[in-house]
Amino acid sequence: MRGTSSTSFDEVVQQAQPVFATRDPSLDSTADELFAIADAIDSSNQLVRLLSDSGRGGEVKETAVRTLLTGKVSDTALSLTLEVVRRRWSEQEDILEALERLGVIALLEQSEHEGCLAQVEEELFQFSRLIDDSAELSSSFDDARGDTSARGAVARSLLEGRAHRLTVALAARAVSRPTAQKPSRRVREFAEFASERRSRLLAVVETSRSLDEAQQSRLGAVLARIYGREVQMNLEVSPDVVGGLRIHVGDDLYDATVLARLAKAREHLES
Question: Structure pTM?
Fold first, then answer.
């Protein structure tokens, strides 16, 4: 997604994060519902056009979604779908991708809760390589191109009992959605989402002097509030760091010139 769609999706994820961060034990089912909603919308060209039409009022779109989903999905899945349709999307396909990626995020969030994100990432990469390396497997997916449920069944038959259940769910979804992308590329894309998620959760903290345990705990709590989840910290002592702290979290950099967001953290560390 690009431009307007990228901005809209970031806004949706921000709204979804408090829901996903509650350690709700039903995130698996929430993901299943979001995937099913995306497929239901995708099955109707008229509905896709309506929900992605920037000229239509938000009230019309919300009414259509409530009519379609109320009583059929959980309140969580319904509210997340409403967050998606309220926003503007550059392409019709983007609204479907947004719903699917929310489902993927839900499963990756669940894998974080269970402490198996690295395992899920590696298993997805391995399955992608398996598809690429097996002409027979690639052919089976090609033969089932028009039957998405059959594709999912193939993935499940290969992975169940051999991989984590969340890996199975993600791989089955990756190969099931009708798209021009090759199944192996879709699985690898989901693995890359897991990889990106792991890197965003790692903070490299450079300090001019060592932090004691209490200071580390306070800084970790502030970062957790900013990012909505626990952040793992790697601490490095660099005497040349100006201002006492330089923090990298994914693409974000905080140093002496842009530490406004962490002003309270510095106050706590110095107290």
Answer: 0.72
